[in-house]
Amino acid sequence: MCMFGKNKNYTESTPPHVVNYKDCFIIIRNAPCLECKQCGEKYYTDEATEKIERIVETAQKLMQEISVEDYKTAA
User: Fold this and answer.
1) Tens of pLDDT along 50-67?
2) What are the boundaries of each domain within the chain?
3) What is 21-75 written as a DSSP string?
4) pTM for the whole thing?
């Protein structure tokens, strides 16, 4: 159940996931999640969260002002 929308209806979605790191932005396109149909809150599986964290760690090492990564093709 969604903590915010108090709803059990989700849709599979792949919106961009944005991380603000030291005034720089890391944008991860196509990150799979479940999205609450009522409020839009996004929930990621443990597997997706781990991959997102690896992508963010890699992007932080190469940090530029803006980094755009694709979930499907990133390590």
Assistant:
1) 999 999 988 888 776 777
2) 10-70
3) ETTEEEEEET--EEEETTT--EE--HHHHHHHHHHHHHHHHT--SEEEEETTT--
4) 0.74
Beta-bridge partners for 36: 10
Matching residue, tokens 């915010």: 4
Indicate if the pLDDT at residue 5 is higher than 70: no
Q: Are the C-beta atoms of 24 and 32 separated by less than 8 Å?
A: no
3 or 31: which carries more pLDDT confidence?
Answer: 31
| Burial tier of 3 (Cβ tally within 10 Å: 0-12, 13-18, 19+) | exposed
CATH code assigned to 10-70: 3.10.20
User: For residues 19 and 75, what is the distance between their CA atoms, to the nearest angstrom?
Assistant: 17
| Residue 48 confidence (pLDDT) above 70 | yes
